Amino acid sequence: MLMRTDPFRELDRLAQQLVGPGTWTRPSPMPMDAYREGDEYVVALDLPGVSADAIDIDVERNMLTVKAERRPVAKSDDVQMELSERPLGAFSRQLVLADTLDTERIQADYDAGVLTLRIPIAERAKPRKIAIGVGSDRKEISG
Fold first, then answer.
1. How far is it, in rounded angstroms, from Cα 82 to Cα 43?
2. What is the rounded end-to-end Cα distance, in angstroms, of the chain?
3. DSSP assignment of 42-60, as one string?
4. For residues 76 and 72, what is the distance between their CA atoms, to the nearest angstrom?
5. Mean local confidence (pLDDT), 73-101
6. Cβ–Cβ contacts within 10 Å for residue 30, how many?
């Protein structure tokens, strides 16, 4: 087996060993992207190697919590591990959602190790026109 050595990779590996894997009481963070696309916010979380049944998504009031656990692959007795760099353990991320988001209609999809959450903007937060009545002549103001 040919391997190139990278001193920084070794430092990262040692630091991970000292800190240890994430646990449910002290989970590791998961990488995330968040952006607005039209009338919804999209949150993409990287969870490679995590099965869909090991992901837990909760919303309480305006707090969105995503928890996941990457478990070790079951190996037979005759397998001897040569190198193990993929982190195992618990991962978690919490997001405070604005009151303008519709937490009742959050959609979650998991594909190719990426959990994608789509959070629509609430109808009450979208711009709308208000009619003003002046006598019998009414005008609309947008805003």
1. 36
2. 66
3. EEEEE-TT--GGGEEEEEE
4. 12
5. 83
6. 18
Helix (H, G, I), strand (E, B) or coil at 40: strand
Question: What's the rounded Cα separation, in Å, for the pair 32 and 25?
Answer: 21
Token pair 């006598």 is found at 135
Q: What are phi and psi of 112, to 5 degrees?
A: 55, 40
Phi then psi for residue 137, to 5 deg, are: -100, 120
Name residue, tokens 């999809």. 109
Chain centroid offset of residue 100 CA:
19
On the question of pLDDT at 27 being above 80, the answer is no
40 touches 120 (CB < 8 A): yes
Mean pLDDT of the chain: 80
Residues linked to residue 70 through DSSP beta bridges, in sequence order: 89
DSSP state of 97: P
Please state, in angstroms and rounded to a whole number, the distance separating the CA atoms of residues 88 and 81.
15
